[in-house]
Amino acid sequence: MPRLNLYQEEYYPSPIQNTWKEFKENHAALLSLYCVIFFIFLMIFGPFLAPYDPLQQNIDLLLVPPAWDNNGDISYLFGTDGLGRDMLSRIIYGCRMTFGISLVLVIISMLVGVALGAMAGMSKGLRSSVVNHLLDSIMAIPTLLIAIIIIAIVGTGLVNSMWAISLALIPQFIHQTRDIVRQKMKKEYVLAAQLDGAGKIHIFFNSILPNMAEMLVVQVTLALSVAILDISALGFLNLGAQAPSPELGALLSEGLTTAYVAPWNIALPGAAIFFMMMSINLVGDGLRSALRYRLLR
Amino acid sequence: MNDLLSVENLRFDNCHGKRWQNKGSKFTLGPINFSIQAGETLAIVGANGSGKSLLAKLLVGLEQPDSGSIYLNERKLEHYDNKHRVLNIRMVFQNSNESLNPGITLGSILEEPLKLNTRLDNQARIAKVEQTLKLVGLLPEHRFFYRHMLSDGQRQRVALARAIILNPQVIVADEPFAALDPSVRSQTVNLLMELQRELGLGFIFISHNLGIVRHISDKILVMKQGKVVESGKTDVIFHWPKDEYTKKLVHAHQALINGQS
């Protein structure tokens, strides 16, 4: 029997719609979201957009200024670098590389961290402590330093720096998850779920995870900005991505040699990193407040 | 007539598990004996810390008794036999505000026991949720709501809906009316009695409010420091209390009523 629908105009938004409604109110966050979407778009479709091969050198056109300069050339929108490589293509590929790698790293460390944290939070006693403090020693050392240590042992390279950064990001996730799980396990609704016959795994996914979204969003955005900074810092120090590869940090360090003659070689990659960081942080902030207010209004 | 739920010599000592962490104070509950029939209401009254909530937890299986046994329909309930217990004995918590998950909609809260304990498909589950919401006097649309959108009385109704959605035989309620104002309280009490009549539930409830106890219960269990001091029919206990403690309780209640009128 179809239900009699008396109030046609009444409309019940789903949780996600509710969050979106709150999020839209925050204009800075919305703008930053478009920015992040743009970066994700670049990440996926970068190779189709880039006008040149990022590694292709053109000896006739060294250090061409950007198109808006008097001496600029419109076919090289962002100019070229000291080896005649097109800056625009290099930055597009650079964003793709830096952003994509950071995203992958954060997702991996989130999955590992949340899994370990949940295990620590749901169990009791010694086992909980061991799992919780498994990677604590890593927290005492700055991420970059661990990366440098790992690289000193295994040698330079992008993959090695990725290992280092994801290892360094995991403990934060473990601790936050464990604290939240501990806190929520004491709530009566978890007791009620137990009385429904729910097992531990079911309780975690159905009762605790929905209440963890806020913390996860904050943690993911923090981790994402840390990852981007570290990847580019290691690239800049020539420890991560190696010279010819178009990674934003590596681009910066290459541009440094011609900084006085061609300032756009460091300004443009720097601006790309800046926009990436800012938009991610603003989106994270907006999402956090949207998630919090969703449950208050 | 057969007993729906009966409890024999139930005992519980509050020093479990960590034996090396020997605690000074020791609380012993029981031995407790009682039985109820279908459609009957048993009220448990007593001071704070007299083990009422602990008894409720033992009944629903959150705690394991040290000795004694609980029979449902003359079949012994073992502690590991959770499935059977979940389907037939449900609990309503004291504070419905705490017992509803703030992060998910009421629909998913109510669907959870169905998902775990029945084989209904998605559509049937939603239908059942809506039907139960109607039964407790809410609208089917309330399944899209979050906890914070409801008033206290509505929350209590949702907690009740959660208890009855599996068609249990016994409901254990731990002070279900404590947080409500008098008018909503009487509404909820009437709702409960109506549901009990319709569904033939056995109802065990814990309360401080002797007025409500007198109104809805058939039997009373008076507890003091983990021991049952008196038990029997409501009328008998209210008119001819035997124990000193029960006398005090009843007199206090009488004084309150006389003072009001």
From TrEMBL, chain A:
SUPFAM superfamilies: MetI-like (SSF161098). One of its GO terms (biological process) is transmembrane transport. It is found in: Cell inner membrane; Cell membrane. The keyword Transmembrane helix applies. Keywords: Cell inner membrane, Cell membrane, Membrane, Transmembrane, Transmembrane helix, Transport. The chain crosses the membrane at residues 28-50, 97-120, 140-170, 216-241, 261-284. Signal peptide: none annotated. InterPro entries: BP-dependent_transpt_permease, MetI-like, MetI-like_sf, OppC_N. GO terms for cellular component: plasma membrane. Residues 95-284 form the ABC transmembrane type-1 domain. PROSITE patterns: ABC_TM1. It is a multi-pass membrane protein. PANTHER family: OLIGOPEPTIDE TRANSPORT SYSTEM PERMEASE PROTEIN APPC, PUTRESCINE EXPORT SYSTEM PERMEASE PROTEIN SAPC. Belongs to the binding-protein-dependent transport system permease family. OppBC subfamily. This is ABC transporter permease subunit.
From TrEMBL, chain B:
SUPFAM superfamilies: P-loop containing nucleoside triphosphate hydrolases. CDD domains: ABC_NikE_OppD_transporters. InterPro entries: AAA+_ATPase, ABC_transp_ATP-bind, ABC_transporter-like_ATP-bd, P-loop_NTPase. GO terms for molecular function: ATP binding; ATP hydrolysis activity. The keyword Disulfide bond does not apply. Residues 10-250 form the ABC transporter domain. Keywords: ATP-binding, Nucleotide-binding, Transport. One of its GO terms (biological process) is transmembrane transport. Belongs to the ABC transporter superfamily. This is Peptide transport system ATP-binding protein sapF.
